[in-house]
Specification:
Blueprint: H1 20-36, E1 39-46, H2 50-60, E2 64-67, H3 71-78, H4 91-94, E3 101-106, H5 110-119, E4 122-124, E5 136-138, E6 141-142, H6 151-156, E7 161-164, E8 167-170, E9 174-177, H7 185-194, E10 199-210, E11 214-217
Antiparallel strand pairs: 1-3, 1-10, 2-3, 4-10, 5-9, 6-8, 7-8, 10-11
Helix pairs in contact: 1-3
Organism: Drosophila hydei
GO biological process, one term: ribosomal large subunit assembly
Region (Disordered): 218-250
């Protein structure tokens, strides 16, 4: 019997590479927002968490828009040089799109946004590579907050544990992390299991552009103001961009 043409193996992990259509959509969205909103900010993210950024987007959706995508694509949307810029002076924002940054388009005043950013933060669990802000030590004894089934997992993370009468028990004092030292993946997982957040999710407003006042720098930097230099072809593939994907979901 001949093999059916429908009998094909399809990998569920196979995904389509984001192409020109996706990039052009981001560029069009940015240019639409430049026309719609009077104030634009470049913000830098500390301890990035997608879920918290999405919460902010939901909270601000009535009169603002967050866009967080590939820096090169966002630069093209604003204009990378004075000749390319979509509004006078806006290419200076584009020059500050480096690292883990995004764009905030808003109807709120510059003063409102800066005051909010100064006071806003959210506690989150630290990830590997984070510098510990305190020393955490577990004394020998029972860990009754953990089910007995967790004991093998805790032991695999390096904790000196055993089961005593069905209770997870540490049989010697154990230092999870030390203040000022970089966390390993295992230490970060243990801190999360213990419910000890160390990181703070924050947004720092690097600079702004408003239709009323033009460009203003809020955090000093060493960006050179070369008005005519643009790098690379507008739509070529980026390697190693800090923002891997656009998460501006409506």
């Amino acid at each position: 019997m001949p093999r059916s043409k429908r009998d094909k193996k399809v990998s569920l992990t196979k995904t389509d590479r984001k192409g020109l259509a996706w990039k052009q959509r981001i560029i069009d969205d940015i240019r639409f927002c430049v026309e719609k909103y009077p104030n634009i900010f470049v913000f830098q993210v500390q301890n990035m968490r997608n879920n918290l950024l999405k919460d902010l987007r939901q909270e601000w959706k009535r009169n603002s828009r967050f866009i967080f995508g590939k820096n090169r694509i966002m630069q093209i949307g604003l204009g990378r040089t004075e000749a390319e810029e979509v509004e006078t002076g806006i290419h200076k924002l584009s020059k500050r799109l480096n690292g883990q940054v995004g764009l905030l388009f808003t109807e709120k005043t510059k003063e409102e946004v800066l005051k909010w950013a100064e006071n806003y933060w959210a506690v989150e669990y630290a990830r590997s590579g984070f510098t510990a802000t305190e020393t955490v030590t577990l004394p020998a004894g029972p860990l009754e907050e953990f089910a007995h089934s967790m004991e093998p997992h805790l032991r695999s993370l390096g904790l000196p544990t055993k089961l005593e009468k069905g209770i997870v028990t540490i049989y010697s004092d154990y230092t999870v992390c030390e203040e000022g030292k970089v966390l390993t993946p295992e230490q970060a997982r243990i801190l999360k299991l213990l419910g000890k957040p160390m990181a703070k999710f924050r947004l720092t407003m690097k600079c702004s552009w408003t239709k009323a006042d033009g460009f203003q720098l809020h955090v000093e930097d060493d960006v050179e103001e070369d008005e005519n230099k643009a790098t690379d072809s507008p739509m070529e593939e980026e390697e190693g961009d800090d923002a891997d994907e656009d998460i501006d979901e409506e």
